[in-house]
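Model: Ready when you are.
Researcher: Fold this.
Model:
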Amino acid sequence: MRFSPFYYLLLLLPALPAHAQPDVSAWEVLKIGLNDPKNFDRRRQAVTAIGSIGLTPEAIKQVEHGLRDTDPLVRQTAAAELGQMKSLSSIPALKAALEDPSGEVAVHRRPRTLAIGRSLRRDGPAGSPAQAAEIDGRFH
């Protein structure tokens, strides 16, 4: 079940300092949550909220940022979000992330990367079947 980005925004509001101004944009709140050094769950929630925004360049950039998080659950969530977003531009980042030192993260990324590869083959732009075959070939 996917929730509205505003649902996640409400979860992240405690990340704002008490003196926060009411004109703080939603992106600023999400970035605060994404960069919270003490709370991995808040970072994971921020990745999920940003992923639900869709295929905008800023959303892709911020979710890919989650692939480099120090916590494996945040990295796993980022991979899942990029897969659900079907972000073709994220294929290189997902391929690089397959080498993640956390086995759980790498195993979780494999189906997401394969799903993007299949999507490329089925729906993608011209020349994408070769890209899809390269991704699929990584696992055979």
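Researcher: Now this one.
Model:
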Amino acid sequence: MTVLYRGIHRHLFAACLFAAALGVLGAGCKKDTGPEPTTPGGETGPGSTVEISRAQDQITQARCDMEQRCNHVGQGQTYANRDACMTQIRTEWKADLTFDNCSGGVDAKGLDECLTHIRDHECGSAISNLERVAECTKSQLCKG
């Protein structure tokens, strides 16, 4: 009986040690939720900024999200497909998307508000240019 007891005890001890090691390894893991917005100096948090090129892409995507929601993207529509929408919006809004005087980048919070407004924009009322959207003016978006 004592040999059987020692064998069980040894296996139980090894199983507990293995479980503890897995717990320690698992505790060090963190889910990657993507990059946080950063300021030009690399800090994160309140007052953070987004690179201008990324902001330009996000604004164009938001506009095409709205156009798609309003059934303006597809065969026989204003935009033949998503790529055509992205290309045409970038061309139409080229002047609005330059952010020439945004030496400090684009304000992340302001950009989020702008993107939400564009995506939720009422179908039937066109957005002729970015400056007509109050949440998307350069004064709302530019840092520095």
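Researcher: Key takeaway?
Model: The two ends are 79 Å apart (CA to CA).
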